[in-house]
Amino acid sequence: MAKISIIIPVYNTSRYLDECLGSVLNQSFQDIEVICVNDGSTDNSLEILRNYPVKIIDQANQGLSASRNNGLKEATGKYVLFLDSDDYLEDNALSELYGIMESKSLDLLIFKIIDFDDETREKSKYSYFEMDLLKSHVKDDVFCYDDVKHLLFRISVTAPGKLYRRDLIEGMSFKEGLIFEDNPFFIELFLKAKRVLFKDEYYYFRRIHKNSITNSNFDKFSDVITIYNIIDDIIIQSGEYETVKHKLFNRQCRDIYLRFSQVPDKLKDDFFLKIQNDFKAKKERYESDGTLELANKRSRKIFLKAITSKNYHEFESSIEKFDLKRKNKKKSKKTDAKPKAFNRLKKLFKH
Fold first, then answer.
1. Is the pLDDT of residue 212 over 60?
2. Is the pTM of this model over 0.85?
3. Is the confidence at residue 250, as pLDDT, over 60?
4. Which of 138, 178, 243, 277 has the smallest number of Cβ neighbours within 10 A?
5. How does pLDDT run across 38-69, given as a tens digit for each residue?
6. Measured between alpha carbons, how far is 70 from 74 in angstroms, rounded to an integer?
7. Alpha carbons within 13 A on the beta-carbon side of 132
8. Residue 210's Cα: distance from chain center in Å?
9. 197 CB-near residues (< 8 Å, 6+ apart)
10. Biggest CA-to-CA distance, the chain
11. What pLDDT is attached to residue 144?
């Protein structure tokens, strides 16, 4: 049995495979198995994979979730790491990550991802992967969900950027046919993991290019509604709903509106109707269990305007006006604060 199984879904990424696989196979830590799932690629990805000492699963196109699931079924390692085929690992990442998992007896090790531009290779930090709030709260200590309930929706859910104890994720799977599939997988896992550590280091390099999944699947962005319904069920079944219901509501409204705002106008009408129907079905529950009362103003606005607006134009316009008003209010507070601070300084110098 290998110490670490690295699962790499592959779909038409032939130009990146040498860098990706080289970053794995050239690691100092070699007690690994590399499982590449060729998801019906139409370029020469499969031919390239055959040149490397990796296990290949060749399947008809089924999508990212199915590829990860099929890779997991074949994995035998004590730990599992997911790597996208256009990304790469830091030198000695596996050695260091394995050492931490073993020395701390961890269920889950979370580490940082850094983006890099496909054309310029310039690296850039993304606050979502920095997880500053988590870092300031847990520092270098081992923790679990009970220690960071208030931060449940402030931790990166991305499947890469983590090393998993395989027996903990056995029986779990990514939701197939959906995008944003990392979200429920992480929530389910995090609720049951007993020993988690956040490592404030970059071990994973994520390529940003125009062919990235999130830039080409706008017609699937409404999947975010289904994803949050799945998360809702997971949290209810865990018995934690009362504790985090308002945070779940805030995150749900934020993410659904974010994805709605990102799609082209031609897709917004259908997306809006799905949001409206979903929110209408939940309204009575949120009113009776106090969720609406606990939620922040912007989330309430998004939720209620989605229900009452006649069309997506009215919905979007209402939220844009709300956001602009809030932005101007913050700006005006900053402007007002400057003369007050200046006057205080004047008084100090007079004395």
1. no
2. yes
3. yes
4. 277
5. 999 999 999 999 999 999 999 999 999 999 99
6. 7
7. 3
8. 19
9. 100, 104, 106, 108, 109, 110, 140, 141, 142, 143
10. 80
11. 98
Question: pLDDT tens digits, residue range 100-122?
Answer: 999 999 999 999 999 999 999 99
Give the residue among 337, 307, 301 at the shortest CA–CA distance from 320.
Answer: 301
Please state, for a pLDDT cut of 70, what percent of the chain lies above it.
93
pLDDT, residue 30, reads 96
Tally Cβ neighbours within 10 Å of residue 347.
9
Q: Where are the alpha helices (DSSP H) in the chain?
A: 14-25, 45-49, 64-74, 93-104, 127-130, 132-138, 166-169, 182-192, 223-238, 241-262, 265-288, 291-294, 297-308, 312-350
Buried b (16+ CB within 10 A) or exposed e, 18-51: eebbebbeebebeebbbbbbbbbbeeebbebbee
Rg of the chain's alpha carbons, rounded to an integer? 23
Q: Which residue has the tokens 């988590």?
A: 134
Question: What 3-state DSSP class applies to 75?
Answer: coil
For 90-108, b/e burial (b = at least 16 CB within 10 A) is beebbebbbebbeebebbb
Query: Does pLDDT of 168 surpass 90?
Result: yes
Token look-up 């950027």 returns 161
